[in-house]
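re the bet — no i am not wrong, look at it urself. input seq straight from the record:
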Amino acid sequence: MSSDVAGASAAAVPRLYIVTDRRATGGRPLADVVAAALRGVAGTGLPPDRVAVQLREKDLGGRALTELARALRAVTAAAGAALYVNDRIDVALAVGADGVHLGGGSLDVASAARLAGPLAIAVSAHAPAEIAAHAAAAGGRLAFALLGPIYDTPSKRAFGPPLGLDALAAATRAATPIVAIGGVEPARVRELRAAGAQGVACIRAVMAASDPAATVGTFCKELK
């Protein structure tokens, strides 16, 4: 195994995973919202390399997505945060991202592991049993799994009822680090961490915030 691949599999698990949705920003440019959000990490005591951004804009074509990914790569690099690109290994490699995030409609994990080179690989799961299957297929390349929805949230209702804290706790008994998503707010961070989640993820809580820096600052203080 090359040193690059070994480094990918040892990627830091994010304590805070900010997932993008440019339609939730109220017309503000996505890169500006992410830059503002990452400014909220400073002074909280949470190391910036434990914060990551996932570029998840599924409707964009390759060229537009690459342009946006380059803008976010500049923003995240300046802040010391990691960048994951949803689904598109080619775009992640082209812009020098830290990882690729595989959802339900993405390339299978085993194939992605062969193609991803130095990229860390993260996956989405909607049931604890899915995580073990992903980990086995990844051959040791799986950095973490995003599990949810833990709480009720409109954007995740298509995946069924919320899993709840018991399912989260069951999933965290496996070897794969878990980042919890779905209805996550700062006030829920401590119970999620107590249930075993290594990190938490959010979309609208940051994307739609009138002050993204303040919201991220609150998240980081709870996570610390």
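see?? DSSP finds ten helices and eight strands in the chain. told u. also The chain has a mean pLDDT of 93. so pay up
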